[in-house]
Amino acid sequence: MYFAVRAARPGSPILLSIPFPTWQAYNRAGIPGEGLYWAEHPTRAARVSFDRPGGGPPPERWEEGMIRWLGPAGYDVDYCSALDLHDGRELLAGYRLLVVNGHDEYWSAGMRDTVEEFVRRGGNLAVFSGNTCWWQFRLEDGGRTMVCYRDAAADPVAAVDPALTTVEWSSSPVDRPENSMIGVSFRRGAGTWGPYMQRMHEESYVVRFPEHWAFAGTGLGEGDKFGRGALGYETDACDFTEIDGVPAATGRDGTPPSFVILATADLRHWHRYGQGGMATMGTMRLGAGTVFTAATVNWGNALHERHVERITRNVLDRLSGPEDGWEVIGPAGPLRAMAVLGPVLYGADADGMLLARELSGQNLRWRQAGPAPGVSALAVPREATATRPVGLYGLTGDGRLVYREPDGSWTTLGDAPAGATGLALVNGELFAAASGTLWRRSEEDGSWDPVDALPAMTALTSANGRLYATDATGRVRTRLPLAAAAEWTDLCDAAGATVLTAHAGRLIATGPGLPLSWRACVSAPAS
Q: Which of 20, 151, 330, 459 is most buried (most C-beta within 10 Å)?
C-alpha cells in the first residue's frame, strides 16, 4: 500500500504532490469493468474505487527518481496526495512552491481550481511531469470513487453541468485546455508506447533561450543538446512558430501570451511509435505566480544528467525562495535608449540605428527599423494630446527634441537639455534626465526648467503617472511628475541597468553588456 504522510504544519516552502488518481486510473487495466483502461475499449469501467488493492506506481516508476533525489540533494520537502489538492486551498496557503512530478494525468475540477488560485495569488508551480492534467475526473462517495467516462455522450453530467464532464480538459463540452494552467498540453506533445517505449532514451532537448535563469550555471549555449533520456514516454508541447530562428508560442491552443519557450525537442517521427509531436520546456506568469514546466514524464529519472540536475536546482531554488524581480527576456545589445509603441519595443543604438522587436518574455531578435541619428533617449506618450500625437519622441546628444514621423524620418520639435540620458512623457508634459538633473518642459512657453536633482541619473522613464529613474548607486527610484522637487522613493536594485523604459506595469532595462530584462513596477513581495 502506498500513502503520503502530510505535514501537520508546513516544514518546507516546497510541497510535492503524489499522483494517486493517475495511479488508480491504471489499476487493473484491461480487466473488463474494473479498470479505466484501455482508453477506447468498450468494456472499460467508468467508475473505480480507491477501496481495493493496487493503485500504486506503474512499473516504470516515473515519480520515484525525483523523490529519491530530493533528500540527498539537500531539499527537505513536504508531501501530499494529489487528492489533498481537491479542496486544498488551506493546505497550499502555507507553501511557496507546489511540485508536480512524473505522470500526473488525472485532475479533478477541485484540484485544478485550487492550484490555479494558488498560483494566481502568488504561489509558484513546477511541473516536472508530462501528459499533465489531460483527463478530468470526478470524485463521488466521499472521495472514495473515481469517475471518468472519457465520453461526453455517456456521462450523465454532461447535460446538467458540462464543465464537469469527464473528458479531456481541452475537449468539448469542458473546453478548458490545460495550456491555460501549465502552458503546454499532450495535444501537441508526443508519445512512444508498448515495444517502442525505449525510443525515448534516444532523444534530447535543444536549448532555445540560453540566457534564461533556468539555464544558469549549465554552460549550455544556443542549439546545444541536453537531457538525453528525460524525454519519455509522453511529452507536452505548445503550438509555436519560429521567428528569426526563435520559437514563440502562438496561443492558438490556449497557451497564455506570457509563455516563454526555453527548449524544444522535435519528436514528430514518433508517429510511427504512438503519437508524433513536440516537447516544449518553458515558463510563464499566471497572475502573481510563476509556472515552470519540463513537459516530460521521465524528467525525474534523468537527474543523473548534470544539466537536468542543474536546471532542476535552478527551478526549485528560484521558485521556493523570495522573488528577486528581474527576469531576462533577451540577449545583450548596444542600446542607448528604449521605448514601447504598441506591441513593439524600440531601441536606439550607439551607431544611430533604430532597432525593434516584439515586447514579450521570449528572447526575440532585434531587427533594424530605420535610422535614429544621435538619439540618446526615447519615450512614447500613453495617449495623444492636443499638441502631441502618439509616436516615438527622442532627445539627441546635441540638445534637440525630435519626433519620428510615420515615414520613418525624424522632425526636430525644439531644443532640449544637452547630454540627456532619459525622456518621459506624462499627461502631455515632457521630463528629461541630464547631468543628474530632472528637467521639465513647460507647454506654455516651450522652455525647459530644472525641477529636481538625482545624483548621476542614468535613465528616465514613466508609467501610470509616475517617473522612474536609475542612478549611479545602482538603484531604481520613483517619484510623482510634479513641477517641483519631490522625494525619490527607492524601489529596487537596477541590476546594473543604465537604459530604462516601462510599459503595462513592467520596467524594461538593459545596459552595456547586460541582457535585456524586465520586472514589475513594484517591489518584490516579501517571502
A: 459
3-state SS class at 213: helix
Q: Which three cell numbers stand for residue 275?
A: 503519437
pLDDT per position as a tens digit, 361-417: 999 999 999 999 999 999 999 999 888 899 999 999 999 999 999 999 999 999 999
CA atoms within 13 A on the CB side of 42: 0
Report whether 193 contacts 200 (CB < 8 A). no
Tell me the whole-structure pTM to 2 decimals.
0.96
**Torsion of the alpha carbons at 351, 354, 355 and 360, rounded to the nearest 10:** 130
Number of other residues whose CB lies within 10 A of the CB of residue 110: 17
Backbone angles phi, psi at 441, to 5 degrees: -100, 125
Count of CB atoms situated within 10 Å of the CB of 224: 16
Burial class (CB in 10 A: 0-12, 13-18, 19+), 202: exposed
- pLDDT tens figures, 514-523: 999 999 998 7
Q: What is the largest CA-CA distance in the chain?
A: 87
